[in-house]
Amino acid sequence: MTKHPEDQLSAYLDDELNNDERRRMEDHIEKCESCQALLEDLLVLQRDLVQTFNLIQEPADLEVRVLQSIAKEESPATVGKGWLFGFLMVSLTLGIFWFVTGSVLVKLVHGFSKLMIAMVYVASHFILSVPVLTALTVVLSLIILVTSIYSLRRLLQTTAS
Ligand SMILES: [Zn+2]
């Protein structure tokens, strides 16, 4: 028992030795303080490694679980529904916006045309109620008409020549 089977200690810890080797190793460890100490160190090291590995493994596992839960939540069907819902919401919003602005615009145009009609009506009524203004309007209209005809004829003549 002079030779320490140090090279086989880690194999012993990993349970990689055959029955004969393990038995010899256990016999040796029982009697050898040096190998007991080494085995203790190796056990501590192994435990630390396992702890470190677990610490690394835990966030990795957490990440996987988070990703899995996201994947579950964003399954193709749900994504499709989400998109459809978003599209419907946008369409609805645009539809309401268009309807509201459209109706407002129609109301504005309607109101404006009503106002214009009223103004024209009032103006014509006012003009007709005042003989001088009526005569003036008729004269003005005739002047505009004559001028238009004259300029039109001039235009036609210049185009002809
Ligand atoms: Zn030994």
TrEMBL record:
Please name the Gene3D superfamilies in this protein's record: Anti-sigma factor, zinc-finger domain
Membrane-spanning residues: none
Putative zinc-finger domain: from which residue to which, for each copy? 7-36
Q: Which InterPro entries match?
A: Anti_sigma_zinc_sf, Znf_put
Question: Which protein family is it in?
Answer: Belongs to the zinc-associated anti-sigma factor (ZAS) superfamily. Anti-sigma-W factor family.
Q: What is this protein called?
A: Anti-sigma-W factor RsiW
Which species does the entry assign this protein to? Answer: Paenibacillus baekrokdamisoli
